[in-house]
Amino acid sequence: MPSFNESTAYPPVFFLTGIPGLETSHTWISIPFCCLYAIAISGNSMILFVIITESSLHEPMYYFLSMLSFTDLGLCLSTLVTVLGIFWFNVREISFDACIGQMFFIHGFTFMESSVLLVMAFDRFIAICNPLRYAMILTNSRIIAVGFAIIIRGTTALVPLLLLLKHLSFCRSHVLHHSYCFHPDVMKLSCSDTRINSAFGLAIVISTAGLDSVLILLSYVLIIHSVLCIASKEERKKAFGTCVSHLSAVAIFYIPMISLSLVHRFGKHAPPFVHTLIANVYLLIPPVMNPIIYSVKTKQIRKAMLKVFFVKPS
């Protein structure tokens, strides 16, 4: 395993990690990873295609779903080359600039996905709590503005964070613990003072994913209150049913994120492969599961997909 204990060369070259202890089985391990990437790419591409081409899906709810599929697709493609490069060809080297670029896309799409999930919670809140004003509030121009705001929010905060990283010195081992460049992982290899980087990184996480999760929770508290005020049991069931897909998407996004954070903080004595597996689950499970959830749970999406394959929906 390559390492540089006293290297002061700049820019440094980092070495990514596959599955520690299972290097001889990387070819076999690559098979389920290839399947997951194929499902994620094809599933999200199909969601985007049917929403763009099917006029009946040109509604706010499905526009936001297309944003979710776009971010999932970006998140998936951000790691595909390095992960499969390790499994297939044992290509572990990555230059510092390439590492910075990969971090920008990984963290950018992660923050954008968090924002999209928040916007989707707001969409469900308006649809259930104020349905008569739904079309008036969520106009096409506002949805476009929200899309641009999500992109700007997800990327602008990363620029100073990554610029701060470029000014660090790396004189310890250059071996990363993941199959892709992850900001906390890279920062740990620096021999410079990283307190500013850590504080700024924590502030970004709190102001994006942290704030979004609190607002999503608040949205559902208000949604539940409104639904419980509905007299008809059948209407309550229908209202809750419209939220199931979104709640599932929220769970499969935040649970792996929290798990990865806990492993980084408290899992110092855990086997090395645990860190790598959870890190890959964190970035692969949402892109894989979201198209499946919305295809199964959303009748309109399912009908549109069947139409694409020339199958008459029942």
From TrEMBL:
<keyword id="KW-0675">Receptor</keyword>
<keyword id="KW-1003">Cell membrane</keyword>
<dbReference type="GO" id="GO:0004984">
    <property type="term" value="F:olfactory receptor activity"/>
</dbReference>
<keyword id="KW-0807">Transducer</keyword>
<feature type="transmembrane region" description="Helical">
    <location>
        <begin position="199"/>
        <end position="223"/>
    </location>
</feature>
<dbReference type="InterPro" id="IPR017452">
    <property type="entry name" value="GPCR_Rhodpsn_7TM"/>
</dbReference>
<feature type="transmembrane region" description="Helical">
    <location>
        <begin position="244"/>
        <end position="267"/>
    </location>
</feature>
<protein>
    <recommendedName>
        <fullName>Olfactory receptor</fullName>
    </recommendedName>
</protein>
<comment type="similarity">
    <text>Belongs to the G-protein coupled receptor 1 family.</text>
</comment>
<keyword id="KW-0716">Sensory transduction</keyword>
<dbReference type="GO" id="GO:0071396">
    <property type="term" value="P:cellular response to lipid"/>
</dbReference>
<dbReference type="GO" id="GO:0005886">
    <property type="term" value="C:plasma membrane"/>
</dbReference>
<dbReference type="GO" id="GO:0004930">
    <property type="term" value="F:G protein-coupled receptor activity"/>
</dbReference>
<keyword id="KW-1133">Transmembrane helix</keyword>
<dbReference type="InterPro" id="IPR050402">
    <property type="entry name" value="OR51/52/56-like"/>
</dbReference>
<feature type="transmembrane region" description="Helical">
    <location>
        <begin position="273"/>
        <end position="296"/>
    </location>
</feature>
<feature type="transmembrane region" description="Helical">
    <location>
        <begin position="64"/>
        <end position="88"/>
    </location>
</feature>
<keyword id="KW-0297">G-protein coupled receptor</keyword>
<feature type="transmembrane region" description="Helical">
    <location>
        <begin position="100"/>
        <end position="122"/>
    </location>
</feature>
<feature type="transmembrane region" description="Helical">
    <location>
        <begin position="29"/>
        <end position="52"/>
    </location>
</feature>
<keyword id="KW-0472">Membrane</keyword>
<feature type="domain" description="G-protein coupled receptors family 1 profile">
    <location>
        <begin position="43"/>
        <end position="294"/>
    </location>
</feature>
<dbReference type="InterPro" id="IPR000725">
    <property type="entry name" value="Olfact_rcpt"/>
</dbReference>
<dbReference type="Pfam" id="PF13853">
    <property type="entry name" value="7tm_4"/>
</dbReference>
<keyword id="KW-0552">Olfaction</keyword>
<feature type="transmembrane region" description="Helical">
    <location>
        <begin position="143"/>
        <end position="165"/>
    </location>
</feature>
<dbReference type="InterPro" id="IPR000276">
    <property type="entry name" value="GPCR_Rhodpsn"/>
</dbReference>
<keyword id="KW-0812">Transmembrane</keyword>
